[in-house]
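Question: Now follow the chain.
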Amino acid sequence: IDSIGINELLRLIEEEWGVVEKREANIDIVNEPELRSIRVAPITNVLDIDNYLAWYKSNVYHQKQDDYYAIQLKITNGNISSKVARKLAKLVNNFSSGELRVSINQGLIIKYVRKDSLPYVYEELKKLGFTKVGFDSVADITACPGTDTCNLGIANSTGLAEKLELFIEKNHAELVFNKDIKIKISGCFNACGQHSIANIGFHGSTIRDENKLVPAVQLLLGGGILGNGDGIISEKVIKLPTKRAIKAV
């Protein structure tokens, strides 16, 4: 835009659009599940009632369909082993609509669970390690793979996410119920971890230490989603060497 101007850019887009191959796509309509066929789980007494109530408050919500609830699973970095995934799939098939939805914050959502099934499903999820409270809260941090698997990654975004979540859970437990602030981390500036629209964001970078380039993280503040397609881009605040950032946590 700086070099050719907005009008020329729009003209080129129109020109390209004229030669792009146009194809019709078939859209499959997903119907509502047959609610009568959803089973009720066995009656179960929950032993750790305090954690159950906290989990219910932060991770469960009542659907518009009477007597049906959605369960949200907080999963650090979105990592699940295939062995655990198969067990989770069996539970979902038996006591819900039989589908899992992936959330934008790397979690999972189980829809159409009967109210009377919640205690049993909770106990089964606990065996799989999926009853951590704080879904979509300050303590539910989104992070791209970073240096774990990405060739562009500069920072260990997944490791920083784990450290920050543990710090929040240990020192600011009340924030697991706060859904107003979102923390997102990218391993580089490309924003795969959505850091640019986070209230608190980090992205991988480098910083010069004498004659060496050292891995670093850039802290950004003030971004967010306003709704209706509007948002605010976060602004850069300070850059820290990655090791110092993790040690500070």
Notes: The radius of gyration is 22 Å. The mean pLDDT is 90. The longest strand covers residues 200-209.
